[in-house]
Amino acid sequence: MPKLLAIALFLIGISGLVKAQSGATKLVFSPTYNGKSIQPGKAIYVSELQDSVSLDDFRFYISEVKFISPDGSIFPFSKHHFLCDFQHPESLQIACPPIISNESESVLWFQIGIDSTTSSSGAFGQDLDPVHGMYWAWNSGYINVKIQGQSPKCPARNHQFEFHLGGYLFPNNAITSIQSRIIPGKDIQIEIDLSTFLKAIDIQKEYQIMSPSKRAVELSQVFSSCFQIKQ
Amino acid sequence: MSKKILVLIPVLLLVLAFRVATNSFHLPKHFPKPVYEFSQKPLDSNRVLLGRALFYDPILSRDSSQSCSSCHSPYNAFAHTDHQLSHGINDRIGKRNAPALMNLAWQKNFMWDGAVNHLDVQALAPISNELEMDEKLPNIVAKLNRSKFYPALFRRAFNSNEISGEYILLALSQFQLTLISASSKYDSVMLKQSVFNEQEQRGYALFKRSCNACHTEPLFSNYSYRNNGLPVDTGLRDMGRMTITQNKADSLLFKVPTLRNLEFSYPYMHDGRFKRLGEVLNHYTSGIQKSKTLSTELNQKIELNSEEKIDLIAFLLTLSDRNFIFNKEFAYPHTVFQSNK
Q1: Domains and CATH numbers, chain B
Q2: Residue in A130, A141, A213 nearest the CB of B165
Q3: Rounded to an integer, what distance in angstroms lies between the CA atom of residue B277 and that of residue B211?
Q4: B308-326: average pLDDT
């Protein structure tokens, strides 16, 4: 019995030296409008527009996601690129790698969009497969963010607005990055409040962007500011 | 012979049958290092064959009427003779002349305006252009999955039961990478297997004096973008590379095309405005239209008398490569289609 007690005390002792490893957690992206969940095809009232807006296609790329612990250790996610599609809720949840660290905080870092090297290195499969329609055929490069829908005040055909934001070449490089302090071991809720985006555009005048441009870069930055990381 | 070896032989043969680089493919000794990274994506005979079948199959177009070869015929050095502008499904007329396809592994960007940044994604442009094939990749994937023989071809090429957009594009790229033209008379002279006659030699000297800066040997293009002084077609109002870069300095710039096989690939220029080589030379000697973006090489007038023009054309015809034009490995794959339809 004293032997067992000694062993138990020894194990407890060394356990303090072993770095803590977080359990399985995930990033959960939630498209919202002023905190209310957005559903495909379901209208939301945008007071600034004095009109309703419904989204039928909302997709974006998240890339090079990683945790960075205070000692500089990097914990990359399972894939380099994730296509998040609000028509497919499972794509809005991304499993996190375990963080092995003594510290109670780490940094979550990721890009919204696809980097220039990947954009100019030919065809890829899985989430990057051009079959998803997130690749420009007439002017090579990925569409980082696609926001499409309808609004009665939009003067386009069928009141359809289309924002295809992308571009990887200077001066129209539209990729953005986000970082935030997080506590390892807990799910990370990332709210994408599109009210910020919809307030930044006048849908009666601006309803189509489908190529790299200065405005696409500006709206990509606005889209990036829609991300609110919570735990 | 041990049992192990007896078992290994068929396995080895099977692996070889499915994963052999194309035997006939080699990089010409007198060519520079290719741009395409073969070390990362080596050629594979099964992928090349699949790409060849796709290249000649109208299944890639929305109404299954147009294949890549409709505008890129092997007998025209994979260009489209007699058509100034490419034409697609429902006889829709495109904006530009279908360029000849060859030596693509040495090109960094594609299309007349350089809109496409990698050969592996090039096919997306004509497939999705509504004036050309007007089709979407998901539809092609669905059609190929319904085919009697494509699933097996994809399985052999990629060791996967999946037909993806990536695989379709890679296979098309693999076939097009094999389209190497390097066995013209010019090439045999460079390899010291032949000699130019006197007229060709005089033409070669003129070429080096007046043309080689942009149509650089041995590929006969430096693949840069230049304004070669063509008056703007007021019907097309094609601004060339500026459409892609939004940069005024790129106004009216188009990719310098290769001169190889130009005997077969007429008409010439991005809009196919010249039918004969004589017209092209006349443009360079007396038709240059000055503008802010004119290629600096053309600031000084090119002087060629009528005899020199004939000599120059004699040299240009040494760039004709009949082995390339009539290469059976580049032709319509009768065996694939006949044995599977």
Answers
A1: 3-181+324-338 (1.10.760.10), 185-320 (1.10.760.10)
A2: A130
A3: 14
A4: 97
